[in-house]
Amino acid sequence: MSPRTADTAVAVHPLLAERWSPRSFDTAHELGDEQLVALLEAARWAPSARNTQPWRFLVGRRGDTTYKRIFEALVPGNQLWAGTSSALIAAVAAELPDGGEPHHGSAYDTGLAVAQLSVQAHALGLHAHQMGGFDAEALRTGLGVPAGARPLSVTAVGVLAEADLLPDDLRDRETAARARRPLVETFFADGWGKPLAVDLDG
């Protein structure tokens, strides 16, 4: 088990156990068309309610205008590191799909699409870091996101670089042990807060 592999109660697929969200990316790496399309296809084939596919993505590769505008919409703390990534991909939920009826599950479905993109990135030897720290209105204005569509997240994609390239505080976060709440504090049965009973020895 590598230091970044999740310490799970039972084995899960390596793509899930090994996936993590770094901040240090290789500035020499360029995301090619085939890799990019693989990421987008993974997102495109996510499940959605009634197959409405409410997700839309604004895709920028380092050096192009879309990348620049997405980067400018990030909060300063994310700008400290995200500009080294090979791509910045903004996920937008179409809350009023083509039929015009509100889609109340659009954010959930869009999140599924982003999750599939992030797992596909890991399968390709890339890393993805999702961010909620950005100015949605700046993104909306800069890239013409219409009314009825809500920017939800920005994902930085690239190849991992050394943690020592980061400022001290970010380097410490980059190398800190990964952790999650225990199962008993997260998964319930027979009522809220009542831990799900499972037998891992049986």
Characterize this entry briefly:
This protein is of the alpha+beta class.
What does this protein structure show overall?
The structure is a single chain. With 202 residues, this protein is α+β, with helices and mostly antiparallel strands. It has one domain: NADH Oxidase (3-Layer(aba) Sandwich), CATH 3.40.109.10. It is 33% helix and 15% strand. It has seven helices and four strands; from the N terminus they run ααβααβαβαβα. It has helices spanning 14-17, 33-44, 65-73, 76-82, 106-123, 136-143, 168-175, and strands at 55-61, 87-94, 127-131, 149-158. The chain has a four-stranded antiparallel sheet, sandwiched between helices. It is globular and about 55 Å long. The relative contact order is 0.19.
Average pLDDT number: 93
Main-sheet strand order equals: 1-2-4-3
Strand content: 5-15%
Give the N-to-C terminal Cα separation. 24 Å
CATH architecture: 3-Layer(aba) Sandwich
Low-confidence stretches: none
Per DSSP E runs of 2 or more residues, the count of β-strands stands at 4
Rg on CA atoms, Å: 18 Å
N-to-C SSE string, H for helix and E for strand: HHEHHEHEHEH
Task: Briefly note the CATH topology name.
Answer: NADH Oxidase
Largest sheet: 4 strands, antiparallel
